[in-house]
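User: I need a structural model of EB1 C-terminal domain-containing protein from Noctiluca scintillans for a docking pre-check later this week. Nothing fancy, just the predicted structure tokens so I can convert them on my end. Input:
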Amino acid sequence: MEGAFFVSRTELLAWLNETLCLNVAKVEQCASGSVYCQILDMCHPGTVAMKRVNWVAKTDHEFIPNYKVLHAAFDRNAIEKHVDVDRLIRAKYQDNLEFLQWMKCYWDREGHANGDYNPHLAREGKALPPWARTASAPVVRNPLTHKENLRPAEEPSVKPRPQKPVQAKTARVRPGSVAAHADHSMESGSARVDDLEAKVSSQQQDIEELRTTLDGMERERDYYFGKLREVEVFCTGLQDDESRGQVSVEKFITDIQSILYAEADEGAEEDPTP
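Assistant: Understood. Predicted structure tokens for EB1 C-terminal domain-containing protein:
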């Protein structure tokens, strides 16, 4: 295995920033493929289409065109190396570290003699992302925009006309409208009172019906409680009677029924049929 595969992350980043005049702080920032393209261009100047490299790519689908440029340069220089693009564009540390170590190994073998390589000229003045800029990196400006910024501000030829002060208007209220509004309010108020009185009357009727029902339930409660009490007295007397063993079931049932229906029978006798 080549010695570059044992190079640490710190040494790789120091070599990368020194040779390409960048300010890369993490190995994962190489995932866009732009750094790999310039390393190969540094090994074989002019064989990489650097004008097609997108340095400010931020997403996966923007990284892929950079790797297409890298593949084309590999084919142009007869480099047999499998590049796992799907793993590199995920910006994982280990995948990009191993590929960067391989690129360093290839540079040691093929490109270290190119001491006159100018990374700024190779990038053709393209803007770099914030993480790749250095303090000495030239700032690319649009000449048209720069000239426009140097022009003094021109005074407007047409002066604005002074505006007249706007006076606040006071709304006038007609006496007739006030009276009509008062009449309408009184009518709506009286209608609401009528509705409330109707609701109160209906609720009073409901209360009377509930009272009547409650009285009937109380009378039924007292009636059945009295019957239960009479049955209890009859059973107690039957237990004290010495002849309770001679009472048959039919006799016991007849006596209980006579207690339960006593008042009903008496009422029937008091109200003779015509």
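Before docking, keep this in mind: Confidence is low (pLDDT under 50) at residues 139-154.
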